[in-house]
Amino acid sequence: MNTDEKKELRKIVLKERKKLNKDEVNSLSEKIISYLIKMKEFKQSETIMVYLSFKEEVDTFNLIYKMQELGKKVVITYTDKKENILIPCKLIDLEDSLEKNPFGYLEPKEESIEKVSPSEIDLIITPGLAFDKKGNRVGYGGGYYDKLLKSAPQATKVAVSYDFQIFSEVPNEKFDIPVDYIVTPTRIIVCER
After folding, report:
1. Which residues have CB under 8 Å from 79's CB, separation 6+?
2. Which of 78, 81, 70 has the alpha carbon at shortest distance from 98?
3. Using CA atoms in the order 104, 95, 85, 119, what is the torsion angle rounded to 10 degrees?
4. Which runs of consecutive H residues, i.e. helices, occur in the chain?
5. What pLDDT digit, counting tens, does each position of 92-133 carry?
6. 73-80 and 85-90 as β-strands: parallel, antiparallel, unpaired?
7. Best CA proximity match to 9, nearest among 163, 185, 126, 131
8. Fewer beta carbons under 10 A from the terminal one: N or C of the chain?
9. What gap in Å lies between CA 67 and CA 73, rounded to an integer?
10. How far apart are CA 94 and CA 52, in angstroms?
11. Could you tell me if 168 and 192 are in contact, meaning their C-beta atoms sit under 8 angstroms apart?
12. How many angstroms separate the CA atoms of 51 and 182, rounded?
């Protein structure tokens, strides 16, 4: 399994994802959220890290509102471009404390960063482009999430995904960190390793 296979898989999934319109993204995301919030691992978690979705990704903004209603501490990430790492930060608010970064997605403004230690995080909701039932994931390239997942071994790792992003096998390398669960609009996959 090599880098070329990952590139090819990314292309296939991105092409498929671009076909989704806003209503489809909202509807499928709502189904995913309804499964996710019923999970014991979610209910028992106090501090949850979640990515801020953009384009046709599974929409996490309604999930964030739900997490705030439930009294969860919401953690998002800031990209440290010098170190090529993601820094977990407390979400202050969704309106005034965020800005678009050079990659085009929202993250905390530098002046509103409140760092959170990875050891405090109970559950991490991860993005990704392709997954298999063993929990292997293909991200966007760069290994940002793998470094972060490695720094929080105690956290339950949950991917949210459309059904077309699930494959029988995806390329993985020794530094790739698998997820424990994958939540789609139709099911919760308990990853077997």
Report:
1. 85, 86, 87, 101, 103, 107, 144
2. 78
3. -150
4. 3-18, 22-36, 40-44, 61-69, 144-150
5. 888 888 998 877 889 999 888 999 999 999 999 999 999 999
6. antiparallel
7. 131
8. C
9. 8
10. 10
11. no
12. 15
Secondary structure letter of residue 13 according to DSSP: H
Structure tokens, 107:
């993250």
Q: Model pTM?
A: 0.93
How wide is the angle at C-alpha 132 spanned by C-alphas 127 and 137, nearest 5°?
35
pLDDT band, residue 2 (cuts 50/70/90): low
Per-residue H/E/C for 175-193:
CCCCCCEEECCCCEEECCC
Tell how far CA 164 is from the center of its chain.
16
